[in-house]
Amino acid sequence: MLKKHRVLIIVIVMTLVVMISYSSILNINTAQTSINNQKNGVGNKNEEMDIDDMKNVENEKLDAEILRKQKRERQQNGENVFDANNIQVGLPDSNNNNLLFGNEDDIPIQTTLKKTDDKLLIECLVRASKQNNQLSIEKTKENWFTYMKKISSEKKEKCHYSNQRDYDEQPVRVVRQLTDFQENVECHLPCSSVHQGGAYIDSSIYSHSTCEKSMYETLENVRPYGRKYDIVATTDTKSDVPLGYYSWNEYPYFKKPIKKIHNKDQGLVAAFISNCGPQFRLDYMNKLIAAGIKVDSYGHCNHNKEQRKTKAQDYNGAKMEISSSYKFVMSFENSETDDYVTEKLFGVFTIGSVPIYHGAPNGKKFFPSPNAGIFVNDFESPEDLAAHLKFLDENDEEYEKCLQWKKTGPTKDWMVVMDQLKANGDCRTCIKVADLQRKEVGMVVNKNTSMQLVPKSFTPNDGIVVFIRERNTFWFTSVAIPYSTTYVELVEIFSNALNHKGEIYSANDLWSKEPIIDFKMKDKTIKLTQNQEIEVLFADLDFFWHSKKLPPGEE
Questions:
Q1: Which end of the chain is more exposed for a tag (fewer CB within 10 A), N or C?
Q2: What sections of the protein cross the membrane (predicted)?
C-alpha cells in the first residue's frame, strides 16, 4: 500500500514539473514574439493597433496573396517563372559545383526576402504590381561567362591605368580645391586627395593632360563657361559629382524642437541678414512688419534686436541657438538658382523651427516633408504670407503639423536627396574618375566573386546578365535576368542582390540616367540589355534617427 502511495506521489510531482515547464516555455515564446515584433516595427510602445492599421495589414496580406496567385497561374500556363531563391545564387563551391538552394516550386513572397525587412519589400512589390510597367529584354547570343573570361584575360591600357588595375596597389588620386589633402579617403574604392604632382594623377582641377581627367568644381550652381571638362561638380544634384551644404555630419536633423516663445519681448519671426546687397529680402521683411508681423532682426541689415548671450562658440552656433525658440525664421538665399540651398535652410530644419524660404526655385525638394517649411513663391504677396503666419500662430495644432516630421520621420524623397552626400566629395570624385577610365579601357573585373550572382547553368537562351550597384559605390554585382522576368520580379531581384539598408527607391541606367525602376512612373516599357550597368538607390529612414549622436539632454 505504501508503495502505491509513493508511486502516486511521484506521478503527481512529475505532472506538476511538466506543467510548470510548459508554462515557462509559453512565457518565453510570448516574450520572444513581443521582442521580435518590436524589432520588426510591429505594434507601438504605448498604442494598440487601430482599425485603420488593421485594415492596412489585411490589405497588404491580400495584395501579397494576389501576387502569389498570379505566380501560380503563370506556372500552370507553362511559363518559366522567376524564383528569387533559385536564380540569384550560383557561386561555385570548393569542388567547383554550382551552389543552388531554395528549389521549392512555389515559395511565398515572404520567404524570398533576404537583404531587407520583409514588410518593406512586400510594400515595394505591391506598389510595383499596380504600376503596369512592362519589361522589354533584348535577346542576346553572348555567353556571359565567355565574355567575362575574355575581358579579364585581355589587358587594355591607357597612360597609367588599365582594365587590370589593382586599386589597392594603385589607388585613384585626385587633385581638388574644396577639400583637405588626405592619402586614405574613406571610400568604397581606394582613393587619395593629393597635391598636384607625384607618380601619377587621375584627375585634377589644374592639369588637363590626356592622362588626367579635367575637373571643374564650385559650391554654386554655375556651369563652366568656354571649355569642356570631363567632370563637373556643382550644387546641381544632376552634376557629375553633386556638392552641397546638407552634410549628415554637420546637421543632426532628428534633434527635438524646444518650446517656442512669442510674446511682447520676442517676435514671431527671427531674421539674421548681414549682407545688405540683395534688396528683395529686406523689402520683404519690411512688408511683413507692415502687415503686422513682428520680426526680430539680429543682423546688420534692418537691425532692431540685440543678440543675447549664448553657449555657442561661434556666430552660426549662436544664430541657431537663438533661432530655436522662434516659431519662424527667415531663410532667404543670396541667389535664386535651382539646387543652390545653403545652411540658411538646413540649419533651421535642424533646430526645429519653420523656415520662411526664398531662393532656389526648386527649394521644396529639400523640405523633409511638404509642410516642413513655408515657400515664399507659393504666396501672391507678403501680406498673404503674413496672414498665413498669423493663422499658424493662432492654431497650435496646425503649427505642430509643420514639425510632425521630427516625430514620424521625413519623406523617402528627401532622404534620397540627402543621401547623395552620405559619401564625401573626394570619394564620389574618385568613383566618377574610375568610371570614366573604365569607358576607355574596359571594366576592371572585381576579385570578389561573391558578387557574381549568375548560375553556371545560365545561358543566352535563358536571359541576360546586368551589372547593378548601389549609389556611391564602385564595384558591381552581376545578376541574371530571365527573359520571362516581370517588372515586379525585377524589383525583387535588385533588392535581394545588393547588401543594403532600407527599401529600394529607384534604379537608373548608370550612363543615360534613364529610369529602370521608379515607383512614380506608370504604363512604361523599360528596356534592358546584356551587360547594362545600373545604379540602384535605397531609402533608409532608420539612418535619419541614427545619423549623429548628441550629448545627453540635446536629443
A1: N
A2: 7-26
